[in-house]
Design brief:
There is one protein chain. Strand 2 and strand 3 form a beta hairpin. This protein has a 3-stranded antiparallel sheet. It has one domain. About 55% of the residues lie in helices and about 10% in strands. It is elongated, with a radius of gyration of 20 Å. It is mainly alpha-helical.
Length: about 100
């Protein structure tokens, strides 16, 4: 595998890791927005985004009319970096294995 092919695989691995990161972030929200869940009188609505590290949270204080939110940029970076390493690494290794198999046949 030459350098141009390697960079091409890293680019497509990065694109895949971005798509997978957005998908997993969306899936981390779905259980929290269950329309069938009935909130009791003392139960407050919370929303947290991020897997495995929570990087965004939205929560209500008692007596407030609007939700409060917080970002954790460090956890966002950790999530993005973790997804990039895993997905791009697997993609590049798979493509390298495929190119070696094609050369051997």
């Amino acid at each position: 595998m030459n350098k141009i092919e390697l960079w091409k695989h890293i680019f497509w691995g990065t694109v895949l890791s971005i798509l997978i990161f957005f998908s997993v972030s969306f899936l981390s929200i779905l259980p929290q927005i269950n329309p069938l869940h009935y909130y009791r009188k003392g139960e407050l609505y919370n929303l947290y985004i991020g897997f495995p590290f929570e990087y965004y949270g939205q929560f209500w204080f008692r007596g407030c009319d609007i939700p409060n939110s917080e970002w954790n940029p460090k956890n966002l970076f950790y999530d993005c970096f973790l997804f990039w390493i895993i997905v791009t690494g697997i993609y590049v290794m798979k493509q390298k294995n495929n190119s070696q198999n094609q050369q051997n046949t």
